[in-house]
Design a protein that fits this description.
Largest sheet: 2 strands, antiparallel
CATH architecture of the largest domain: Alpha Horseshoe
Distance between the termini: 61 Å
CATH superfamily of the largest domain: Tetratricopeptide repeat domain
Number of domains: 2
Helix content: 40-55%
Structural class: alpha+beta
Number of helices: 6
Length: 179
């Protein structure tokens, strides 16, 4: 029989984030453990690399729990010109082209088109995107709702409303967590 040994490295965190009034906002107490086994004739494992690996895992886990996640979505403008006539049709086409070179100019063009086409779903949706991009969520929401009224099957407008709701929910969670 060959004698063997086992080395276990364990981190037992007891991390807490509390408000000034003592209420617990967050805690982390999940144990991390790593074991290595060796027998006579083997090289005994070093504990320092294991400790570093577990500490890195803990740091990554805490960071993932506490930091908000940034997510970027590439949402395309609506390009449908259906229902637009003559000069407005061409102006809309130009506004869509502008989205590739100057989003601000494209947004201005869509805004100019809204006056003569207050119920055109593509114009309304694109204006919602412009407001959402600028962080003007209340206005974006209004444009998306108007786009839904203009085209009740507009899943793109419903997706815009969902993005805004998720954004607001994230802000509320962050606000309540770090108050």
């Amino acid at each position: 029989m060959v004698p063997c040994w086992q080395q276990t490295v364990r981190i037992d965190p007891d991390l807490r984030l509390t408000r000034r009034d003592g209420a617990t906002l967050w805690f982390h107490d999940e144990r991390l453990e790593s074991s290595k086994r060796w027998c006579r004739g083997d090289t005994r494992p070093l504990s320092d690399p294991e400790i570093r690996t577990l500490a890195d895992e803990l740091a990554h886990s805490v960071r993932a729990e506490l930091l908000p996640a940034y997510r970027r979505e590439d949402v395309r403008v609506m390009e449908s010109r259906k229902g637009l006539e003559g000069a407005d049709r061409e102006a809309f086409r130009g506004a869509v082209r502008l989205t590739k070179s100057s989003e601000d100019a494209a947004c201005d063009s869509f805004a100019a088109l809204e006056e003569g086409n207050p119920a055109h779903p593509s114009i309304l949706f694109n204006l919602g995107l412009c407001r959402e991009r600028d962080g003007r969520l209340d206005e974006a929401e209004e444009f998306y709702e108007r786009a839904l009224v203009a085209d009740s099957g507009a899943d793109y407008a419903a997706s815009g409303l969902d993005r805004i709701a998720q954004h607001r929910r994230g802000l509320m969670q962050a606000d309540s967590r770090f108050r």
